[in-house]
Write a structure and sequence with these properties.
- The chain has helices spanning 6-19, 53-68, 95-101, and strands at residues 26-38, 41-49, 81-86, 107-113, 115-124, 127-137.
- The protein has 138 residues and is α+β, with helices and mostly antiparallel strands.
- The protein has one domain (6-137): Cyclic Phosphodiesterase, Chain: A, CATH 3.90.1140.10.
- Helix 1 crosses helix 2 (53-68).
């Protein structure tokens, strides 16, 4: 969501709490590894999440209500993933890119989802600190 004011954070928490009864437990399939790039350099390693109707539904409910509250949402399409790590430096060559490519379609595991955490990320030179602001159990 990018930089978010305290007022916006409270609105998000309210939306999540108001909709908790609409969410139900589900299973995600973790499949594939990939990279996000910044200035043509790899910046994030991620594990993919296979298309999932429950996750898509949860995203849609939250997104629609954020739009009603005049939130500016990303123009990029929803790409569910698990951030594995941020990359500050890579050795010259394509070793990392080629290694990740070897796992781009690999099935890793199924994992049960029965709660949703809303986090604040506080960026520091040493890395991000993630602070849970709200948790919804379903």
């Amino acid at each position: 969501m990018g930089n978010t004011s305290n007022k916006q954070i409270e609105i998000v928490k309210e939306i999540l709490n108001h909709n908790d009864h609409k969410f139900k437990s589900f299973t995600l399939q973790i499949t594939g590894l990939g990279l996000f790039y910044h200035d043509k350099k790899p910046s994030v390693i991620w594990a993919g999440i296979a298309e999932n109707e429950e996750l898509r539904n949860m995203f849609s409910i939250i997104e629609k209500q954020l739009l009603v509250k005049d939130f500016k949402l990303e123009s990029r399409s929803f790409k569910p993933h698990i951030t594995m790590g941020k990359i500050k430096y890579t050795e010259p060559g394509n070793t990392l890119k080629n290694t990740i490519k070897n796992y781009e379609n690999t099935y890793f595991q199924d994992t049960a989802i029965d709660e949703l955490y809303f986090y604040e990320s506080i960026l520091h030179a040493q890395g991000a600190l993630y602070v849970p602001l709200s948790v919804i159990k379903f």
